[in-house]
Amino acid sequence: MLNICLQQLLLMEQSQNHIYFDEYWRVLKKSSMSNVPETQEAFVPADKIDYAEGSVVSKTIIKKPSGNITLFAFDKGEGLAEHSSPHEAVVQLLDGNAEIAIGGTIHNLQSGQSIILPANIPHSIKANDRLK
Questions:
Q1: Phi, psi for residue 23 in degrees, rounded to 5
Q2: What is the mean pLDDT of each run of 10 residues along the chain (132 residues)?
Q3: What's residue 55's pLDDT?
Q4: What is the pLDDT of residue 3?
Q5: Residue 45 · residue 60 · CB < 8 Å
Q6: What is the CA radius of gyration of the chain?
Q7: How many other CB atoms sit within 10 Å of the CB of residue 73?
Q8: What is the rounded CA–CA span in Å between residue 42 and residue 88?
Q9: According to the 3-state scheme, what is the secondary structure of 76-132?
Q10: Is 90 left (phi over 0), alpha (psi -120 to 50) or beta?
Q11: So what's the pLDDT on residue 34?
Q12: Are 72 and 64 in contact (CB under 8 A)?
């Protein structure tokens, strides 16, 4: 939803219809983006995303051509299937513990730990407990 909203905002901005853009932005901030931090606003990442039973929840905080910042909340036993990316990624556990496989090597991480996922190397994540 956030990605669609950002695309709509960009189209509205490009049309230079600033009256409608300003109104749309005001309404959008009150609704779907109300839990996305504003630029220069201090926030606690774990408070910006909630768990959902039996699911993986993701929330994009920043999406730019240069890279994305996305928060995830995994219910116990949920995960992301093995995949790769052309970019490096940093995983930081805010809560819980996870099994992270990188190129076939298993890494068990606890809350507070981080790991760098190298570009173009298959990786997967499994939540051993609820995980953010």
A1: -65, -45
A2: 39 42 44 62 92 95 88 97 93 97 98 97 97 96
A3: 96
A4: 39
A5: no
A6: 17
A7: 23
A8: 25
A9: CCCEEEEECCCCCEEEECCCCEEEEEECCEEEEEECCCEEEECCCCCEEEEECCCEC
A10: beta
A11: 53
A12: no
φ and ψ at residue 17, rounded to 5 degrees: -95, 75
* SS3 at position 59: strand
In whole angstroms, give the CA distance from residue 75 to residue 54.
Answer: 6
Residues 38, 22: Cα–Cα separation, whole Å: 16
CA 132 – CA 93 distance, rounded (Å):
6
Give the count of alpha carbons within 13 A of 82, CB side only: 9
Look at the block and give the residue holding tokens 């051993």. Answer: 128
